[in-house]
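User: Teach me something about this protein's shape.
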Amino acid sequence: MASLQDTKDWLKAARSISAELKSYTSLLSDFEARKNYLSAAGIDGYIRPSSPSDPTARHAIDSVSLDELRPRVAKLEAELAMRAALIAAMPDSAHILRALLVARYLEGQRWEAVAYSIGYSYSYTVQRLHPLALFEAAKLLDFKR
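Assistant: First, the predicted structure itself:
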């Protein structure tokens, strides 16, 4: 079985993955909007003019970055989906623990909000339920590896 600390670290990575995914998704949508604008204006984004401040040149550079971002976004989405799938695979009898893990690690809520959302006190949530949730997740994480 995976250690509780390893499980916690693996789940905790979901927050940074979500933040990174959000920033990349924002970049992708900005790139797409700019690409659509330039296409509508009849500008080919792959022509490299002499002036680096020209919007067409910036678009050409962005097109390269866009091709590099898409695989990274797909990888991050897969990583996040693995964590969500592990939590979803927890038994129905552990629905409170599942809700705790979703709120804390997938939604990034603070402990106070997690405790309130599952209907337990802060101290009981952090000291009792969280270790139980990590134990259940560790059993599944070890099985999935």
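Now, about its shape. The helical segments are 4-40, 55-88, 95-106, 111-118, 122-144. Residues 4-144 form one domain. If you'd like, I can walk through any region in more detail.
User: That's plenty for now, thanks!
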